[in-house]
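Why run this: before we spend reagent on co-expression, it is cheaper to look at a predicted model of the complex and decide which construct boundaries make sense. The entries below are exactly what would go into the expression plan.
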Amino acid sequence: MNPSSPEVTQGTVFDVVIVGAGITGAILAKSLAAKKKRVLVLEAGTADASNFGSYSQLLDNFYTSQAKIPQSPYPDNANAPQPSELDCEQITPPIPDTNGYFIQVGPIPFLSTYTRYLGGTTLHWLGTSLRMLPDDFRMKTLFGQAEDWPVSYDDMMPYYAMAEFEMGVSADVSKQNYLGIHFPPGYVYPMHELPASWSDKTISKSLDGTTYEVDQESFNLDVINTPASRNSIPNQAYANGKGYTPVGAVGNPSLGQRCMGNTACVPICPIQAKYNALKTLYSADSEYVTLVTQAVVSKVEIDPTTKLVTGIRFKYYESATNPNYTEFVAKGKQYALATHAVENAKLLLASGAANSSDQVGRNLMDHTTLLAWGLAPEPLWPYRGPVATAGVEGMRTGKYRKDTASFRIEIGNDGWGWPTSGPITDVIELVDGTPDPATNGSEPIQLPKLWGKALRERLKEQVRRQFRMAFLVEQLPNADNRVTISPDHKDALGNYIPIIAYGIDGYTGAGFELGTKVYKQMFKDIGAVDCTVVNSKTDAGYFQYKDTGYTAYGAGHLCGTHRMGSDPKTSVVNPQQRTWDHENLYLVGCGNMVTVATSNPTLTAGALTFMAAENILASLDK
Amino acid sequence: MNEERSQKVAALTEGDVAALHQHYREKGFVQLQSGPLQEELKELRDLLQSAMQLEHATIPPYLTGLYSMKAEMPWNIIGIIRTIVVEEMLHLLLAANVLNAIGGQPNLTAPDFIPDYPSYLPHHIDDLIVNLEPFSPQFVQQGLAIERPKYVDPVRIVLGDPERMTIGEFYVLIESKLRSVVAQYGEAAVFTGDLKRQVQPDMFYYDGAGQPVPVINLETAVKALQIITDQGEGMERTIWVGGEDSDNEVAHYFRFNELAVGRQYQSGDTYQSGPTGAVLSVPYDLAYSAAVNAKIAEYPAGSEVRTHAEAFNMAYGQLLQLLERAFTGEPSLLLQSVPHMYLLRNAAQALFKNPFPAKEDSGLNAAPTFEYVPVLTGQVASGATLTASGGVHPGHPLKQA
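The model came back. Tokens follow.
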């Protein structure tokens, strides 16, 4: 499906106008087109990832970049700007951090990013596709915290299955039915689980069977293979024996039908064995889907009397390096915003839309991430296999959630790539002779400057034993963690720039405190040297809880800015994901999530979007 | 037996020959008379072992072309060769599954399993000499010669001697013999192999090439053999594998032809039309110039290149041993052979990056030699032990050319 010129949007009333061509926009477009609904998809970014030739250029950007951060393959586009991991630094209120795209008010910078390209943030996501736990939907009832979701795990089950098919999830059901997660009888994932890495197997020898106790409740610390939207061996038993055919790279379908373990899932899978939204978009029925890229939506136009959306105003730019644009208004019977949590909120605020509850832009959540890194007693051989293939899931829920944030623990196969940008920095430090990282809290020893064979030997000794764990700590919805806009802050096309106020509360702080104790026990059981460093001066996500300093990292899980609910006074969308205020305006994506829960949110966002597609179809057929 | 068949062929009238051709055109095989069951099975097992050798014989040449490409080679050119060689690997497995199904014993570790390049293919199939050469116009021409759709003379199938058959005739011979022996003795007498030896679809997925077909009867055996010939030469009446569809790929011959002509096939193209789609630029200069059919003995003793070439051959021998075990009762080893293949790639690329020792003036670089070395049973348990066994040091920085 090649992008069309913006003129094709004129003189037509589409069945549905979708804003955003990431995973949720793509799922909506494909689902609606399958029912022969005429769909227009407007994407702010360029289509640079859409054929394998230009995708290879993005790959080259990654290969040649110094910092292999999630955004490294995807250059910023001034007409559709995006945040970068390199933008964040500590904030001293009231002076905001204006280094990057966001105006960061603080007190802590919001550390996560998203990608404004055709295909969206699935271009750089990891691919982790865990389901939420049944408990995650009932935080208020079970733990007296936050809100319950207006849907339950059982309501979500069929939609999880649809998302697992569309995204091509590899996992074995027998290992995923923990802490209340359940499946219909006979259900299997489309593909078998990815093989455990050497590191997973080695670490599980030390951790399997161990437990951690909180308030007389015992939690299992077994290492569990992680479901991933990443091609593996198809399961013959899928769909009652029909099997499953892996989807390869867009434009190069014989490549990427099987993960080759490049350890570059984030920021870019070289072969597209990892799912990205282009796969969904390009398998949609092109007869029914019109795609316009480089079309930045500036306003949702609303009839003041009927409160119905009458059109979507967008600015079409010819080139990412030129701020000239032409304005168009696209018309549809139904509308859906699918631009991710921050941009959806920004657009609604800019349009004065859907905000009778005053909840638009509020409750911004992420998985504030506690990183722990160390040196294992034996080589774990990192950088083999996907960035992560296993985790410890046993602490995702428990009675302690009444006052302490829960977490899942991702075990990386990427050495110290995340915490220290290793192994590049290892080389630099060894050549410069910086202090030994493996001092385990004692006085650092200055290392001699190394070169030649000694450097190689030391690198080999050090890098092959490196590992890290990422504790994805839950964050509660908080009205003060929010996206706002101001006429003082606009981008090259005159669109609003998100202003973000963000902090970490005591509930999450308690999760960090608990997580730290848990990781120390696990490192002890593994026999690992703890090399974790919390730097109060330079870590952008540094914060204190009970007088102890911690560093939070961003997980890229932006949620909650237009949450769903049963009460129009406290939520932006109803359980059908339609705005309470506008009968023909739907919102999709992680912004609808009531709580960030304990799973990476993309699979849940995908499942919710399949649910939303059914509701939009019902509205159209009414 | 052969004499008997020769006499029979000599006795064929023009009408008999015409009938043979018509039957073959309609059915795709030839009706044969089977001899005693055990003799027939032995012949079939020998033919299928040859089929494995034949499918394997193209892998070192194709890998040589693939590994000689520099990192800057465009993805779509790499992709053409990569998909072909992956499919040859699937064909090797499919031939092993058929052989196992009729109670045979796949052997990948005999000293003559790897051809001594330059070499004829087994049984002088296609009467073709195959070389190990880097990616180049000659490499592409060789690929065309190997994969060109070949004439099938049904009279030669009746004759039954595989010597100098075309590859098409060779597989029609196997299918025809299988069909006749099943017709005469029944499936139960023919498909006696241990089912546990069959590599199942759940055990391995060939990226882009498809899935293993477990062979349990005539139908599945014919299906497995057809995948081999369809992916190679293409199917009757279409150049596309799996039917004409923009998502499908053209058969191997046509993929090589895209490189030779410098243009892609598009929907509607035929064998006669050749490719009429988008221009495909083939930058041969983005492959290393390397020696053709290099031999270990040519690398000076004690040179780094020689050490690495020997390590490569040891690793290749270990890989074949691992595959043999996977095909003789331990199919789960197939997945474990993948890391081993990565080590091979790294070792091959280290050779291609370095000048041919003592022949630096020629401008040619070194290349892997794919020569047989004996590997002791149990020397390699899985890919993970390779480095420890002292075989190959992946990514070891030899001096750059």
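The CA atoms of residues 380 and 389 of chain B lie 8 Å apart. The radius of gyration of chain B is 22 Å. Bring this page to Monday's planning discussion.
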